[in-house]
Amino acid sequence: QVQLVESGGGLVQAGGSLRLSCAASGRAFSRYAMGWFRQAPGKEREFVSAISWSGGSTYYADSVKGRFTISRDNAKNTVYLQMNSLKQEDTAVYYCAAAGILRVGSSSNPYEYDYWGQGTQVTVSS
Q1: CA-CA distance, 108 to 88, in Å (whole number)?
Q2: In this predicted model, what pLDDT tens digit does every residue of 14-54 receive, in sequence order?
Q3: Integer Cα distance of 34 and 44 in angstroms
Q4: What is the pLDDT of residues 57-79, one digit of tens each?
Q5: Going by C-beta distance under 8 Å and a sequence separation of 6 or more, which residues neighbour residue 11?
Q6: Is the Cβ–Cβ distance between 115 and 25 less than 8 Å?
Q7: CA nearest to 85, candidates 66, 57, 112
């Protein structure tokens, strides 16, 4: 069982930066691949980024590639999402998720993830 708590969201101007954190409970954190998803009002939840259990592999949606960076600190049971050059279209609730087994090529599939946090709001103003 893994519990996830996101933090770091807020209001930022376009072009600004935020760093989201996702703190996990449980001793098996390092065995889980982790992902970030987001959901804007009236839209479906979409994949943002994922990272393997070791941190050796990372994945990004095309819409955030080059602007967002995912990382993890297994000693702190925490995964991060550094978001730079934010755009208004990045406005959404951001969720972190944990996957016990993440098959190759499936990092963007929300159904591959076993545990989810409650989300943190990111609002980017013009």
Answers
A1: 22
A2: 999 999 999 999 768 889 999 999 999 999 999 999 999 99
A3: 19
A4: 999 999 999 999 999 999 999 99
A5: 123, 124, 125
A6: no
A7: 66
